Amino acid sequence: MQFKDIVGQEIMANKLTGIIDSGRVSHAQLFLGDTASGSLALAIAYAQYLNCQNRQHYDNGRLHSDSCGECPSCKKFQQLTHSDLHLYFPSATTGKVTSKPSSADFQTEFRDFLNANNQKGDIDKWYDFLGTDKNGMIRELDADNIVRTLGMKAYEGNYKVIIVWMAEKMNTVAANKILKVLEEPSPNTLIILVAESSERMLSTILSRAQQVRIPTKTHPEWDLNPEFASLYVTWMRQLFKLNMATLSEWVDTIAAKGREQQKQFLLYAQEATRDCFLRHMAGTPMTMDFGDEKFNASFPNMITERNAEGLNNAFDEALFAIDRNAYSKIALMELSFRVCKLLKKR
Ligand SMILES: [Zn+2]
């Protein structure tokens, strides 16, 4: 999987290749986002880029870098057959495996499933593909294999990559077993947990993995909340005019909402900003309508290559803080100042 084949995730792709190019690859990462966002495909593309023998860099264009797709490593990654790529996922008993199911029993099926679905995961489709009911899990046997795999040397690549898809389906015993390897990694190994929600994951796992929040294109809750669009427009205008009195009123309005609503709004704002960037850089049509023609027409010009990534990170960090029960008003104020500065950097 190359980043160029994952539509609409250019900012995330640039962020991920940037991390690899800078040599600051964290050995345990959590890719958090709806399956529809392409989070699994991004994890695979990330692993492929990490091991590509001929990374490509572009001076202009929406993607800064990508794997070559041609070298022996890339060719194996495209088929998901590279011996340093290890895939773990929920499994269940089937006609073929009647007891103690684990990912090891379904490697061929999982590869076929991913190749048939553009390497996008979808848990319901996966269970249908396996022909099981919907109670798949990642169990102790998988955890034992993960620990063993992490202890082995990489065969062909520079990096051995373990991808655990739907990591929230890991049972507690399995999760506890992998804690140690998250803490004491072997050199040149990387474990990527891909999950839709961090809510059912052990906090001890969460605190050991670097979180990468993958934005989603469509989000049903946003449609139910037309207020988000007007709150976003108001906020951005205040930041642009640096109107402190009304900004603090705005912060109060958001902070008065529950924590879940605050997070939903910030996810919306992150996605809206990303949408503006794509519109500005690539001329793609806006998928979001802010209900304000003047704003629709002018604001996307504010989001450029110079500030898009910084803005994305600022939202990520505010979301992380609010997730961690930080005081919302302070987190929102800090975010506002960062966004304000970044908007000037265009
Ligand atoms: Zn390559």
Commentary on this structure:
The protein has 2 domains: 3-213, 3-Layer(aba) Sandwich (Rossmann fold), CATH 3.40.50.300; 220-344. α1 (10-21) runs parallel beside α2 (39-51), α6 (140-151) runs parallel beside α7 (172-183) and α10 (227-241) packs across α15 (328-344). Strands 4-5-6-1-7 form a 5-stranded parallel sheet, sandwiched between helices. A two-stranded antiparallel sheet has the order 2-3. The chain has 15 helices and 7 strands. The protein has helices at 10-21, 39-51, 72-78, 107-116, 123-130, 140-151, 172-183, 203-206, 220-223, 227-241, 244-255, 259-282, 293-298, 308-323, 328-344; strands spanning 28-32, 56-57, 65-66, 85-88, 160-165, 189-195, 210-213. The mean pLDDT is 89. It is α/β, with parallel strands linked by helices and 346 residues long. Residues 52-54, 67-68, 70-71, 73-74 line the site of zinc ion.
| Ligands bound, unique | zinc ion
From the N-terminal CA to the C-terminal CA, the straight-line distance is 32 Å
Proportion of beta-strand residues: 5-15%
Q: Going by CATH, what is the homologous superfamily of the largest domain?
A: P-loop containing nucleotide triphosphate hydrolases
CATH architecture of the largest domain: 3-Layer(aba) Sandwich
Tally of helical runs: 15
Overall average pLDDT: 89
Number of strands: 7
The neighbouring-strand order within the major sheet is 4-5-6-1-7
Give me the strand/helix succession.
Answer: HEHEEHEHHHEHEHEHHHHHHH
User: Can you tell me the CATH topology of the largest domain?
Assistant: Rossmann fold
**Major beta sheet, specifics?**
5 strands, parallel
Helix fraction by DSSP (H/I, runs of at least 4)? 40-55%
Derived structural class: alpha/beta
